[in-house]
TrEMBL record, chain A:
HAMAP family the UniProt entry points to: HisG_Short
Record bears the keyword Cell membrane: no
Superkingdom of the source species: Bacteria
GO terms, molecular function: ATP binding; ATP phosphoribosyltransferase activity
Higher taxonomy: Bacteria, Bacillati, Bacillota, Bacilli, Bacillales
Binding partners and assembly: Heteromultimer composed of HisG and HisZ subunits.
Reactions performed catalytically: 1-(5-phospho-beta-D-ribosyl)-ATP + diphosphate = 5-phospho-alpha-D-ribose 1-diphosphate + ATP
GO cellular component: cytoplasm
Pathway linked to the protein: Amino-acid biosynthesis; L-histidine biosynthesis; L-histidine from 5-phospho-alpha-D-ribose 1-diphosphate: step 1/9
Gene this chain is encoded by: hisG
CDD domains cross-referenced by the UniProt entry: PBP2_HisGs
Entry protein name: ATP phosphoribosyltransferase
UniProtKB/TrEMBL annotation, chain B:
Main subcellular location of this protein, as a coarse class: cytoplasm
Cellular compartments annotated: Cytoplasm
Gene Ontology terms: biological process: histidyl-tRNA aminoacylation; L-histidine biosynthetic process
A cellular component annotation (GO) from this entry: cytoplasm
Pathway as given in its UniProt record: Amino-acid biosynthesis; L-histidine biosynthesis; L-histidine from 5-phospho-alpha-D-ribose 1-diphosphate: step 1/9
Homology family: Belongs to the class-II aminoacyl-tRNA synthetase family. HisZ subfamily.
Role according to the record: Required for the first step of histidine biosynthesis. May allow the feedback regulation of ATP phosphoribosyltransferase activity by histidine.
SUPFAM superfamilies for the chain: Class II aaRS and biotin synthetases (SSF55681)
Boundaries of every Class II Histidinyl-tRNA synthetase (HisRS)-like catalytic core domain copy: 26-304
One Gene Ontology molecular-function label: glycosyltransferase activity
Top-rank taxon, per record: Bacteria
Protein name in the entry: ATP phosphoribosyltransferase regulatory subunit
Length: 206, 372
């Protein structure tokens, strides 16, 4: 039985394939997968899903391993082994607002795709805020007056800049991580240990 | 009409299998001299949330009583039984229970368990009894593809003691170990590089007897750790001698319930990875009643186990075709098929449903049976 790895679609997927190739694994079927959501190589099965769904597939043991951003793990707290950081997908979580605008004197309203991370960030600061959950284009919220600020991931900062926002505070640096199903890691240890070991070596190369 | 998320109606085989799993559990535990105990479904939240039990109120199904107390649906058996056993005579050492627990953080709100508790019993005897009851029950259920994992809370306690972390940092370290998150384990313990190294190595310390042998040598100069690893080895050998093919140790496992203190064990089904039982030592739970006793137990996940059973196929299905006049006679014929599923019908609609169809016919005022 081949190990099943769930990959986060999009940018992380491409970075993973590059990383995987650098570890001398066969990535040809992954590159030429077209629109397929399940791909098999000589050694592995891969499934492609949104980040949060990657954690669900791993938690339920459909996938043995998963590659997912730590933002997703921090937000959704899935019951999985959170094994190791990978040398890609580096981002920061930041609180940002409209350039030149002061915080209001009342309770602040913060828009975010990450309500739990946002709640925890302000709880640690000892501040009560109202959180508006958005699914995307969070940068719009302060501009259109829906919120006073946003909590979102920042990679280069270009999106914020182009939308007239500035970072007020950065508070969480993270990367992609390798997660594992709690039972699979034990039951399929002989199959999974070499893969995890190679990911660790890849991490050292960084 | 709709059902709340996590609730479900159930029919047929699923229920038959579950009853069978419960029946066999009762048989096994009765024959091993366990006494049954049951506690109420509704309890005060404090029984489970006090500092000794330490369970999270957020995951419980709860409401306020008229007096303003928080009441919950039983979220855990062991804690409830500890409360109940305080009033029992200590001469009874072995207890068994079966019934539901209710937790909102699980896929289904209600899950069914059957379990045992062994109290006032020497450490090795109590733990062996639990593990061998598990082996015997799984054998009775004809489940043979499983793996038993052993761990011990004392390893983490012993290695982290010199770090002198405050409660919050220690809990963070425990969670990082629970998640096998090496980078964070190292970071939290990094003030002491040697211990940080040992803890991160421990994250990968799961495997078979090779791991036990390695750590037996590795910890030869630490009396406490040596004692623990030799205790685990003794239990693992017991299981091996009892025919358990796959015994796994995870020396990096930390307690997932606050009241565990000592050996922890867990059974995994190999084909789907489901945890079919879990348990361990929890002497500390009794400290809330000012009692210092030995207590160990485990609970089977009856839902997981009964999914592996298929009992209806084991029975031959027989249809007796009768009529209003011959129904009483047909009922007497039923007696001769004591180990079969027997259904009396007046008309046969679907013969594929049955392995055998017999008809009652009347000759000269006498009934006789004809096989069709």
């Amino acid at each position: 039985m081949k190990p099943c790895i769930a990959l986060t679609k999009g940018r992380l997927e491409n970075q993973f394939i590059e990383f995987f190739q650098s570890l001398s694994y066969d990535v040809e079927p992954l590159i030429n997968k077209g629109r397929k959501l399940r791909v098999e190589t000589d050694e592995f099965q891969f499934v492609f899903a949104k980040g949060v769904d990657v954690t669900t597939y791993v938690e339920h043991g459909i996938a043995d391993l998963g590659i997912v951003g730590e933002d997703i793990l921090a937000e959704f707290q899935p019951d999985v082994y959170n094994l190791l950081p990978l040398p890609f997908g580096n981002c920061r979580m930041a609180l940002a607002t409209e350039k030149g605008k002061d915080w209001p004197a009342r309770k602040r309203r913060i828009a975010s795709k990450y309500p739990n991370i946002t709640k925890e960030f302000f709880r640690k600061k000892g501040e009560s805020v109202d959180i508006v959950k958005l699914e995307g284009s969070v940068e719009l919220a302060p501009i259109l007056g829906l919120a006073d600020g946003i909590v979102d991931i920042v990679e280069t900062g270009n999106t914020l800049k182009e939308n007239g926002l500035v970072v007020k505070e950065e508070f969480f640096e993270f990367s992609a991580r390798c997660i594992a199903n709690r039972s699979s890691l034990k039951i399929k240890r002989d199959l999974l240990a070499p893969v995890i070991k190679s990911f660790q070596k890849g991490e050292v190369v960084r | 009409m709709f059902l709340p998320a996590g609730s479900q109606d159930e029919i047929g085989n699923r229920l038959n299998n579950r009853s069978r799993a419960y029946e066999l559990f009762r048989k096994i535990t009765f024959n091993r001299n366990y006494k049954q105990i049951s506690t109420p479904v509704v309890e005060y939240a404090n029984t489970f949330t006090n500092k000794h039990a330490g369970m999270d109120l957020r995951n419980m199904l709860k409401w306020f009583s008229k007096e303003g107390e928080i009441e919950v649906l039983r979220p855990d058996w062991t804690t409830a039984i500890a409360r109940a056993l305080v009033n029992q005579h200590p001469s009874q050492l072995k207890w068994s229970y079966q019934g539901s627990v209710f937790r909102s953080d699980k896929d289904g709100i209600e899950s069914r368990q059957a379990g045992i508790e062994v109290v006032h019993t020497p450490t090795f005897l109590g733990e062996s009894e639990c593990l061998l009851t598990a082996v015997s029950y799984l054998k009775e259920l004809q489940i043979d593809s499983y793996l038993i994992e052993l761990g011990h809370t004392g390893i983490f306690d012993e290695l982290t003691a010199p770090l002198q972390l405050d409660e919050i940092e220690l809990e963070k370290l425990r969670i990082a170990m629970h998640d096998k998150r090496k980078d964070e384990v190292y970071q939290i313990a990094s003030d002491n590089k040697e211990i940080a190294g040992q803890l991160t190595e421990l994250v990968d310390a799961f495997g078979s007897f090779d791991i036990i042998e390695y750590y037996e040598k590795h910890w030869k100069d630490n009396d406490r750790l040596l004692e623990i690893i030799q205790h685990i080895k003794q239990l693992a050998s017991l299981l091996k001698e009892s025919g358990v093919e796959d015994v796994l140790v995870d020396l990096g496992r930390v307690k997932n319930l606050p009241y565990y203190c000592g050996t922890m064990f867990r059974g995994f089904l190999k084909d789907n990875g489901a945890t079919c039982f879990s348990g361990g030592r929890y002497d500390k739970l009794y400290e809330q009643f000012n009692e210092r006793i030995s207590a160990v137990g485990l609970a089977f996940d009856v839902d997981v186990l009964s999914e592996k059973l298929d009992i209806t196929d084991q029975y031959e299905k027989i249809c007796i075709l009768a009529s209003e006049e011959s129904h009483v006679y047909a009922e007497t014929i039923r007696q001769s098929y004591s180990n079969c599923i027997v259904d009396i019908k007046y008309e046969l609609v679907n013969s594929d449903e049955f392995d055998k169809v017999i008809q009652i016919v009347k000759d000269d005022n006498n009934y006789r049976v004809v096989e069709k």
